[in-house]
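I have a small job for you when you get a moment. Can you supply me with one protein entry, sequence and fold together? It will help me judge whether the discrete encoding reads sensibly. Write everything out right here, beneath this request:
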Amino acid sequence: IGTGTDVEPGEFPWLVSIQSHGKHICGGTIISALWILTAAHCFADELPPDLTVAVGGVDPSLPLEEHNPDSLILHEEFNRTSLQNDIALILLSNPIEFSMEKSPICLPFVCDMDRWQHCWAAGWESTGAALLILLFSFAAASHVLQKTRMKLICREKCLEQIPHLVGGMISVTFLLLPQVDSGGPLVCSYWDTMKWFQVGIISGG
């Protein structure tokens, strides 16, 4: 994210940096000790041989705990043109040992957009303009993990701004204008709880 607020260590412990040749290419989310949720458009059809998943830190330019992927699963109906079903799973070769700085995100059990009141996105940089987002800027990428507040908006308003929005995509507005991180999560809590759920994946070109 180019113009967000720096994230403190352990504040977003589920966020990972997916890297190629040691450089960040996409964000992702820990959903279990062995599985990472991310965007399908970040990859070709096969798993790159040099891919690693860095966990447990906010600055990918510093040494982080790295995990090698075992396999990659793209959504069977992923469309590279429309980015519909832009979802992928990475199976790690070894499990992540959870700690205060490495833990999984919860997956949602309801689809009611009105329930999600406090939403955030976090990431390092962008591989392209995000179709999930209505407003974005092209600020320089940050080396430190950053966050920005989000607000979900109804699909009717989305279609006014993005007529080609495909089914299954949602839109948000920013309270800041960041550059978003492809593959990273949109996370929300509901009511006054502090439990966080991943309700979306940042999808970009």
